[in-house]
Amino acid sequence: MEKAKLAIIGGSGFERPFRDTKQLRVETPYGSASLSILRFGDRDVVFLPRHGPQHSIPPHKINYKANMRALREIGVERIIAVNAVGAVNRDFMPSDIVVPHDFIDFTRRGPVTFFDEGPVTHVDMSQPYCPEIRMLLLEVLKKLDIRVWKRAVYLCTDGPRFETPAEIEMFRRFGSDVIGMTGVPEAVLARELQMCYASLCYVSNMAAGLREKIAQTEASRMSKVISPWLEQALIEAVKALPLAREACQCPSALEGARF
């Protein structure tokens, strides 16, 4: 099997940003996952479109466990995930780039974990996103002529519907800045597999109540506007990211987590 230590997970509007060099289908105990192997300079990088290459999988139907396990099986240790989000914080605007530092899980699909059976495992999420990848992303984004938020709370819902104005107001009072439908359980499953994970979000729309109506066509249009900056940031981040994991605790996430 091909091996690569770095992976990019593409979100809405970012399913095929790079020219694929090799297609793979990886079988796992949880199902199969379709991946591409890309070449960035002297590095092989896995690209995984979470909604499928044609954006045919809605957020509540994504096989997160198969996707994350497939990445681990192929040797991935570090993941940069691209997420389209709505702005809950009124200071955020469409086309802004956001690198969240924390999240709130408001999904109701039930726990999605690799530890349904013993040993009982409680993984630590004090730092939900890998600090080393976050800092590197922020350094790369400084060089781009685009507005970037270096701290934000990402709130995740199940979807596929958009939220109501009352829900958005509640989430704002909870302290969330942006809202999406896919960031959880990805971040949790990555931590359980001791992989580094950070999210590179782009604001595709203002959330319900902050504008009259939300249309998916608006999000699609915004993804086309922001894609060149995202691609540039991802390429620079991949080239600069150290392969050795020495500046974070992600590789030892299960130490002290099990009974």
Describe the structure.
The longest helix is centred in the C-terminal third of the chain and has 25 residues, at 216-240. It contains 5 helices and 11 strands. Helix content is 26%, strand content 25%. Strand 9, helix 3 and strand 10 form a beta-alpha-beta unit. The protein starts with 5 loop residues before the first strand and ends in a 19-residue tail after the last helix. The chain is of the alpha/beta class.
List the helices and strands and how they pair.
Blueprint: E1 6-10, E2 22-28, E3 31-40, E4 43-49, H1 64-73, E5 78-87, E6 97-98, E7 102-105, H2 131-142, E8 148-149, E9 153-156, H3 165-174, E10 178-180, H4 183-192, E11 196-206, H5 216-240
Parallel strand pairs: 1-4, 1-5, 5-11, 6-8, 7-9, 9-10
Antiparallel strand pairs: 2-3, 3-4, 5-10, 6-11
Helix pairs in contact: 2-5
Key traits:
globular; 259 residues; 11-stranded mixed beta sheet; Rossmann fold; alpha/beta
Brief digest:
This protein is an alpha/beta fold and 259 residues long. It has five helices and eleven strands, in the order ββββαβββαββαβαβα.
The low-confidence runs, each spanning 5 or more residues with pLDDT under 50, are: none
Cα-atom radius of gyration: 17 Å
CATH hierarchy: architecture:
3-Layer(aba) Sandwich
Helical residue percent band: 25-40%
Number of domains: 1
State the CATH superfamily name. Answer: Nucleoside phosphorylase domain
- Return the average pLDDT rounded to an integer: 91
- CATH class bucket: Alpha Beta
CATH third-tier fold name: Rossmann fold
Helices and strands, in N-to-C order? Answer: EEEEHEEEHEEHEHEH
Largest sheet: 11 strands, mixed
